Amino acid sequence: MAHVVSIVIDADLRDRTVNRASVLYRIGCLPGATLLGMDNDRDRWGLIYEYDPAVDSEESFTEHRLLGLARTAIGDPDLDLAIAGVRFWKSTALVADRFRVGRSFLVGDAAHVTTPIGGLGMNCGIGDVDNLSWKVAAVVAGWADESLLDTYEAERQPVAELTVQASLGAARPPAQTDGLVLGASYESSAVVPDGSQPPAALDPLGTYLPTGRPGHRAPHLWLDDARVVSTLDLFGDGFVLLTTPAGTAWHTVVQRESHIPIRVHVIDHPEWPDLYGVGPLGAVLVRPDGYVGFRAVGVPTDSNDLGAALARLAGRT
Ligand SMILES: Cc1cc2nc3c(=O)[nH]c(=O)nc-3n(C[C@H](O)[C@H](O)[C@H](O)COP(=O)(O)OP(=O)(O)OC[C@H]3O[C@@H](n4cnc5c(N)ncnc54)[C@H](O)[C@@H]3O)c2cc1C
Q1: Terminus-to-terminus CA distance in the chain, angstroms?
Q2: CA dist 155 to 132, 148, 280, Å?
Q3: According to the CATH classification, is domain 3-90 in 3.40.720.10?
Q4: Range 284-311 burial, b when 16+ CB lie within 10 A, else e
């Protein structure tokens, strides 16, 4: 477990960084140190410095020493700067045993703590809230059973485990964690499996393979030539049933399910059926958090019962 001190520095480094713009600078002359750009004006910086508690106590980081560390890291012993804040912390990787106890839910760093490696903690926390908020809203509104809230832990704890493990590995640039951040999938009673297998990436952490399989994030597809409107813009305030223009049989089924907020959106795009894994008469039900809850390859049948799927997604079976 690394012990770290974060030092917030006010110093105008515009001239020094204009030709080597970056957010993070590893400091070769000060082992264990990284300089982090904290605002766009490049005059507030964070110096993140790993220290050995067997050698250095927190008290040993006096203002005089902090100024010296900052000037060494920046490479100018006479630099005009000010220390705006200091925080000691330990690099930890933990996942809580429970994410829900009764009416209390843990989200974000309260539920899981990653090391800063890979910059994964915030995304995971936002994913928690995205997952939980529609479920709480549905229960409060009365169209979902309280048991739906148990799917929060079932869905997010495995993602937290993967994220925490990833933060213990080698650092990767953000684009090389798309498999984890965008590709993580859910298995719970708030997903209706369709018997298909998940896509198999050679590098599951790094590679995101878009799929409309239930439990996965509904894939992005531009819906207009100007590339302004995405499928992702359709989701967020209720269930959305996606069909092709030929999928009218599904629209009739939806009219019977008026007790649950659900909109139908017809997608007239040649790539959509393949991307979402349905035929020309199929349908995909997307949850309010943008995850696929149910998929039918063809027309409605007894084994593809949208009403039963919605009941399951609302925790009513
Ligand atoms: C050095 C470092 C670099 C990081 N870099 C990245 C990165 O690049 N990308 C990324 O995704 N993540 C990064 N993270 C992780 C990210 O910062 C956290 O995952 C994220 O901030 C967690 O958000 P949170 O809202 O769950 O918790 P916090 O941000 O910790 O927010 C909790 C808030 O609750 C307040 N609070 C605590 N107790 C009480 C109380 N009793 N009453 C009222 N308020 C209270 C706290 O003051 C705090 O404001 C980094 C973390 C560190 C330490």
Answers
A1: 45
A2: 10, 11, 30
A3: no
A4: bbbbbbbbbbbbbbebbeeebbbeebbb
Tokens for 67? 């100024």
Q: Name residues of the chain where pLDDT drops below 70.
A: 174, 258
pLDDT digits (tens, 9 = 90+) for 221-258: 999 999 999 999 999 989 999 999 999 999 988 877 76
Asked whether the domain spanning 94-181 has the same topology as the one spanning 3-90, the reply is no
Nearest residue by C-alpha to atom 26 in ligand 1: 108
Q: What residue segments make up the domains of the chain, in order of their start? A: 3-90, 94-181
CATH placement of domain 94-181: 3.50.50.60
Which residues form the pocket of ligand 1, taking CB atoms under 6 Å from any ligand atom?
Answer: 6, 48, 89, 108-109, 116, 119-123, 125
Which ligand 1 atom is nearest residue 6's CA? Answer: 1
pLDDT in tens, 174-209: 678 999 999 999 999 999 999 999 999 999 999 999
Task: Output the pTM of the full model.
Answer: 0.87
CB 74 within 8 A of CB 83: no
